[in-house]
Amino acid sequence: MNTPSRDAHGFTLIEVLVALVIVALGVAAVMSALVSSADGTNRLRERSLAEWVAANRIVETRLAKEFPTLGSSEGKASMGGRNFQWRQRVERTAIDGVVAIIVEVRAEGAGDGLVTLRGGRGEDLVVSGEADALWDTAVRAPP
């Protein structure tokens, strides 16, 4: 009887199964890395949008005609197709006439805050009437 050598038969069933297990583990690791990367990207996007909401609140408070009153306020805002809840606190600072504006923002329905930004606003430093005189002088100054 003519028996072919072992090399002529190809791979054994155990070798094929071991190779499949190794490939499956490699694919699982790659998929896990992709999911983790996608989650991280989504979280960064959400944080960026929350920062913009907080920055907008601080700018609106700074640009308001009335000087902000001390205390807290809450509201909702939409940015980038997402809904956010914000909480703003206006507190005294060590400097007379300057208040701190603290804005915390979180995604609607989420339990933890995403972003906290701090800003400030000071009272007008120019006595009424002096601002117009300064502006007139600046506008009329020769080039």
Describe the protein's architecture and organization.
The chain has helices spanning about 15-65, 130-140; strands at about 70-80, 80-90, 100-105, 115-120. With about 140 residues, it is α+β, with helices and mostly antiparallel strands. The chain has one domain (about 10-140): Pantoate--beta-alanine Ligase, Chain: A,domain 2, CATH 3.30.1300.30. The chain has a 4-stranded antiparallel sheet, with helices on one face.
Distance between the termini: 110 Å
Question: What is the global morphology?
Answer: rod-shaped
Which residues form runs of ≥5 with pLDDT under 50?
Answer: none
Instruction: Write the CATH architecture name.
Output: 2-Layer Sandwich
Write the element-wise H/E pattern from the N-terminal end onward. HEEEEH
Category by helix and strand content: alpha+beta
Q: Would you identify the CATH H-level superfamily?
A: GSPII I/J protein-like
CATH fold annotation? Pantoate--beta-alanine Ligase, Chain: A,domain 2
Spatially, the strands of the biggest sheet line up as 1-2-3-4
Mean pLDDT across all amino acids: 83
**Beta-strand percent range:** 25-35%
CATH class: Alpha Beta
Q: What percentage of residues falls in helices of 4 or more residues?
A: 40-55%
Q: What's the total count of β strands?
A: 4
Give the count of helical stretches. Answer: 2
Radius of gyration: 32 Å
User: What's the main sheet like?
Assistant: 4 strands, antiparallel
